Each structure stands twice: as C-alpha cells, then as structure tokens.
Amino acid sequence: MSLDMASVLDVDPLLDNPRTRIVVCCGSGGVGKTTTAAALGLRAAERGRKVVVLTIDPARRLAQSMGIEELDNVPRRVPGIDASAGGELYAMMLDMKRTFDEIVEAHADEERARAILENPFYQSLSAGFAGTQEYMAMEKLGQLRARDEWDLIVVDTPPSRSALDFLDAPGRLGSFLDGKFIKVLMAPAKIGGRAGMKFLGVGMSVMSGPLNKLMGTQLLRDVQTFVAAMDTMFGGFRTRADATYRLLQAPGTAFLVVAAPERDALREAAYFVERLAAERMPLAGLVLNRVHGSEAARLPADRALAAAEALLDGSLLDGSSDGVLDGRFGPPGEALTAGATKTSENLDGSGIVDRDSGQAASRTARAPGTDAPTVPSTPESGLPQPAPSGATTAQDVTSQDPVASTARLTAGLLRLHAERMQVLARERRTRDRFTALHPEVAVAEVAALPGDVHDLTGLRAIGERLAHQTAEAIEATG
Amino acid sequence: MSRLHVVSGKGGTGKTTVAAALALALAAEGKRTLLVEVEGRQGIAQLFETEALPYEERRIAVAPGGGGEVYALAIDAERALLDYLQMFYKLGSAGRALKKIGAIDFATTIAPGLRDVLLTGKACEAVRRKDRTGRYAYDHVVMDAPPTGRITRFLNVNDEVAGLARIGPIHNQAQAVMRVLKSPQTAVHFVTLLEEMPVQETVDGIADLRAAQLPVGGVVINMVRPEVLDEADVEVAANGSRAAVARTLSHALDRTGFGGTRHPGLAERLVDPLVAQAREHTERLALERRGRREIADLALPTYELELLGDGVDLAGLYRMARELRKQGVSE
Asked: Are the beta carbons of A129 and B278 separated by less than 8 Å?
C-alpha cells in the first residue's frame, strides 16, 4: 500500500559507490541491527569492496556465522566469502577497555600511562560503565577511518537504552571537559603537582568540603589523580571526538536506521530520523527487519477466520446439497482437536464436500470404521480436482473421520493465515504511521525468517532480501 | 517471598510490559506495588496510557480483584543524586553548587557507574521504606531494569563502587544497597522469547548472575504462539490430502461468500501459499521446542504468556497480569 508512496531504499548503489566510506547502522535493541550490519558488509565485500564491519554487540553466534570463533579488538579477515569481484571482508568487535587503554598508551608517556592504567577509578571507568561504550565506538570508528585501509566501514552501534545515546556521547564528553568541575578538580593538582596532591589548594577550598564528604577522601584522590594524569590527553580526546562527529556529518557517511515493524522500535526510529536531521547527518534510509508477508494476501483475515469457523462449527451444513450425508459420520467432535472450537452436532463433514466428490467422501467416511486407514495414497498433489481420490487419502491417523480431519486441517491453515494477515495489518499500520511522519525516508523491508542466521549463507540471503526491494514490495503489497 | 523484583531481558522481548504486568499481578488482593523505571524511556507511561511520569511516586493503576494499587516512578539519576545529597549529607546549597559546576553531570553521565548506584539505590530505598506504623510502604517493588547484556554489571555496580570508595558515605551506601540486592529479598527475572538469541542471552545472563551471587528469580517466556498445526498435519495437507484440502477450502470460502464461483480456481491457488505458511509455523514451533528445552534445563520457575495478536493495550496488560497470577507468580 503505502510502500508505493514511500520511496524504496536501494542499498546496492549505496554500497557500490566508492564515495560511501562509512555506513552506520543504528536503532533500538533487538531489531537485528548487528545482523543487518554484517549482511551489508558481506554484500559490499562480495560486490568488490574492501570492507570492515565494526560490531559492538558480543553476539557469539554472529561471530561464528562469519567463520570467526571470537571477535576481538583487531579486524580479522573473514574467510569463505565470494572474492571474485575483488572484495575483502574483515570483522572486529569493540573491546572497550582495550580501546581505552590503547588511547592512553598512544597519547601519554610511559610513566603517565602506567599511572593512569593503574588508577582504580580509571579501571572502573574503562571496564565499561555504561556510556563509555558509545564514546569508545566513536573513537574506534575514527581510528579505523584514519588508517584508511578499508573502502568501507560498516558500524553497528551499541545496544544503548536509546538509539540516541550514540550521538550524544561525544558532546557529553565535550561539555564535561569544558565544565567547571574539571577545573575545580584540576586546581589542586596543578598547585600541588601531580604526584602528591594537596587538597586544600585554592581551587578546592570551596568544594573540597562537600566533595570529600560525598566521595570520601580516598575516592576523591583517585578521581583527582585520574583527572590529573589524563589532563594532557583530554585535549586529544576532545579533538578526536569533534573530528569523529564531523566525520559522521561528512558526505561519505550514510546512516541506516534499523527497526522492526513494532511500535516501540519505530518510535525510536522516528526520534533518530529527527535527530539526524537536526545534526545534519546524512540519513540513507530505514531498514525494516522481520516484516511478514503472505503469498495469499488476497484472502483477508476476516474471510479466512469466517471460513475456518464455518468448517469447525458445522454451519456449512445449512442448506447444503449434501444433506444426504448427514448423520453418517461418526461423532464428529472427536475428530477435531480438543477445544479447537465449539463443535455442533452435525459438523463440517458433509457440508463441505463438493457435490462431485461427495460420493467418494461418503464412501470413505464409512471405511474408517475398520480402524485401519491403510489405504495407500496416490500421489496427486499436481492434480487440481481428482474427484475420487481426494477423500481416500485423508488418512490422518489422529482422526477416524477423513472428512472431519480434512476440515480440521483446512481450518488450521485458514487460522494460521488469518493470524498472519493480522500481523501483516498491524505491521503495515505501524509502518504507515512512520511513513506518514517521515515520507522523505526511503525504506527497505526484509522479510522475517523463521530462525536465526548461522552462517555466511544466511547473511548473504539477508543481503539479497535487502537489495531486492522492488520485487518483494510488489509481492507484499499485491 | 522476594520483595524487589528486577525484570531484565533482551531488547524486544517485552521486558517493560512484563514488568508492568508483574506489578499488577503482585498488587492483587489489596497489596501495594511500586513499578520503577530506570532507563528514562517513559515506557510505563505509554503502557498505562498516561502522561509522562514525573520523578515522584504516583498511583497509576488499580489492581484487579480489589483494593490493590500500583504506583510508578521514573527514576531520574540527577534528581536522585540531589535527593541523596540532601538526605544523607544535608548539603543544601552546596549541592546546588555541585550542580552548577557540573559535578552532578559528571556523576550521572561521565561516570555512569555512579548513575547506576543511584538508580539501584533509589529502588532499594523504596524496598526498605516503612511507614509510621512500621509497615513496609510497598509490599513489592518491580524494576524495569536494563537489558540482559548489562544487568549483572548494573546490579553489581555497588560492589565496584564500594571497592573504589573504600570508606566514607558512598562506600556505606553502596554496601547497604548490595546487602539488599544479594539477599533473598531480591529476585532477578528474565523475559525471553522462544527464539535462539533471546534464549541464549537468558542462559548466559543467568550464569553471570549466579557467578556474581545475585539471586535469580524466574523466566517469563513471552509472546508464546499457540500450536495450530503440527508437522504431520502439514505433510498431510501438502501431499496426502492436498486435493481434499483444496476442495474443502473452495467450499468453505464459497459458503462464506468468498472465492468459489465468483473466483474460480482461487482456492486451488491458495493451497500452496497456505501450506507454505503452515510450514513456517511448524519450523518456528520446532525452534520454540528447542528453546523451551534449554529454558527447562535451567530448572527455574517458568511462566508463559501468550502472544497478544493486536499488540499490548491496557486490557492486554491486565490479561497478562491475571495469567501470571494463575501461574503462581505471587506465591
């Protein structure tokens, strides 16, 4: 429906374009962000680009699906991809502490680096207090980009409480570094020297009372030592955070907002779209994962349900030409799965049988009395209306009554279809609301898979689905 | 039984919804529960169809079955910190000065470990709070907690902080919080779907919790789909009885005013897609069975909630609460 109005996101030109250097996948947790990032990376690599996928989520399965037992902080070559187009794929997983340590080692002299690395406050901070992750992801992205070894970097953003945290991290750090607090903390360090600090320095005279009271002398000292030791590095932090932020605004960057067709996920996606626009960051489009489709969409849910109910409650008997069959079946209720629906006396059986096959049905309807439904079935699936054999093959062992059993089966198929169509309708409503708010956002839909992705083949299949939008969209919208 | 219920789960499993349903379930029979939100998403307000929750405990629902009440609180780390400063240190204007120079910002954002201390601390305070008569202010506190990947660190942060601040009020506060969190008063529940990744994360998360000696509660399996057809059915429909199914379908559609004579051949064309959908259904059921086995291996109390076809509204929430009660969550 509305997909025709919303523009369709075409990922291949985006991935193929040599000017695309960074693709950032963002969105709320549990929407398949990491898988999307990996699938895009694989697709780009198999289309000839040299790609690195930076993942934040330590999903072991995904690492394994790329043929790597454990991902770590160093990009590893992914084996087994189709390299015929000349591409390569690397993957790595962000190790926050390692990344933080590397920054310290790279930007402080040896003695100072050791002082920082041994500081208990630093150890806690770098081991991953929430929030550090977002900053370190940005830092790593900046590093990878600076190395310029890859044509394309695909980034999967941290599973933060909100997708927006990722964008806020550098700014937050910046405002902290500009803040007075750090100057207050720094003041005694500057006066007393960085090793043996005095806490009664001029800068601290006002604050040391409450701070000491709050934090305890020892913690305050640790924090101050930490801040003092990091002093020279902060400038670098700030510069790099700003540089990475600008990198995200540059034309070579494309943001993909990933969502599932659910209310919460799409609400987050909408926030993110608005936020990216406010930050003038380039949004390529929305990837909508786990969208359900149906090849039988022309049969609406209510019709399917009505038909299923009619099959199970016997209403089909009314005015049926097959009244002749009434009462010849065994107790029909038993043939149905317990509690499937209220079953009326006469049930399905006779009513649902077409005139031309009625005879056959009635014949076999008596047969099961033998309790040996051993009549071998003839292969017939290709035949549209094989009048006599249809009923003879209804050898569902769970039922003594082949007609009732077929009715139950057919009702089951219809019920499943009705459920599917309800899901479809709900997903469509949710998506339409998003599209109405943001008609400018191109959308790519990825059909739901029954299970998880386990290997490159699975990732490749997702890449295919992502790329072949038009065909799918037409199918889905019928 | 435990009084602090921490509800975690992988993103997308319906953690907030289950936390809300649990709060309702525990509030039945005249009990009073507090539902606490720590991630600033206002998910509770949306669920209960009210305006955004302020930083104050406010009644948002009456429990089914007489007299019970659910209060809700969205904890704001910065406000919680100022509260603490006031409560414990009587800092007054010095607290405001701290805020002015960015110390509060520092505490709640740059050192988010402290933020987690405040969030868990506030919840534990509500658990311990008593009224003048010595009764607990809340019979139960339910926390909509961070997702599985972060829950152990989140709950354990006070241990870390107690190690960092080896003496002083922060140390004492952190230790007091840890005492509640590690006691049988607390139970950490996991919400999962019967899908591979959420099940795996649940298993891993429980192992982490146990390693950290935090009390594991139960597993809530959410969005369970009823089994409509099984593999044998689908095989029969696809092969043995395909023609009979086609005829039955044709007739049923015709009789209910769709297909049949007006759309000749429609039923026949529908059979294969319908069978394909049924096959996906059974594939998913097979995966769900595997997931269920893995969860059963954990040997924890397990609750199952059915998928609500039209998404969760207020009525659905009450239905989930009733279901949780029926399955003995409040025993």
From this structure: no
Same-domain pairing of B55 and B157: yes
State the smallest CA–CA distance between residue A83 and chain B in angstroms. 30
Same domain, yes or no: B162 and B184? yes
Domain count, chain B: 2
Q: Do B119 and B187 fall into the same domain?
A: yes
A22 by Cβ neighbours in 10 Å (0-12 / 13-18 / 19+) ranks as buried
Torsion angles phi and psi, residue B239, rounded to 5: -120, -85
- ∠ CA B167-B173-B177 to the nearest 5 degrees? 130
Would you say residue B62 lies in a domain? yes
Is B237 part of any domain? yes
Q: Do B197 and A61 touch (CB under 8 A)?
A: yes
User: pTM for the whole thing?
Assistant: 0.77
Point out the residue among B41, B164, B166 whose CB comes nearest to the CB of A162.
B41
pLDDT of residue B34: 97
pLDDT confidence tier of residue A160, bands split at 50, 70 and 90 = low
Identify the domain containing residue B252 by its residue range: 231-283
CATH number assigned to the domain comprising residue B320: 3.40.50.300
Does some domain include residue B65? yes
User: B45 and B53 in contact (C-beta within 8 Å)?
Assistant: yes
Which residue segments constitute the domains of chain A, with CATH numbers given? 2-166+244-292+448-477 (3.40.50.300), 301-374+385-417 (no CATH)
At A332 the pLDDT is 38
Summarize pLDDT for B77-114 with one digit per residue, the tens: 777 777 776 766 666 666 666 666 666 666 665 555 67
Residue B67 C-alpha, separation from nearest chain A C-alpha, in angstroms: 31
Mutate to test the interface with A, among B202, B222, B241 (most CBs of A within 10 A): B241
Residues of chain B with pLDDT > 70, as a percent, come to: 88
| Confidence band, pLDDT 50/70/90 cuts, at residue A190 | very low
Residue A92: HSE in the Cβ half-sphere, 13 Å Cα cutoff: 21
Would the CB atoms of B252 and A311 count as touching at under 8 Å?
Answer: yes
* Separation CA B97–CA A140 (nearest Å): 36
Chain B touched by A337 (CB under 8 Å)? no
Cross-chain Cβ contact A409/B245 below 8 Å: yes
Which of A226, A350, A409 is best to mutate for the B interface (most B CBs within 10 A)?
A: A409
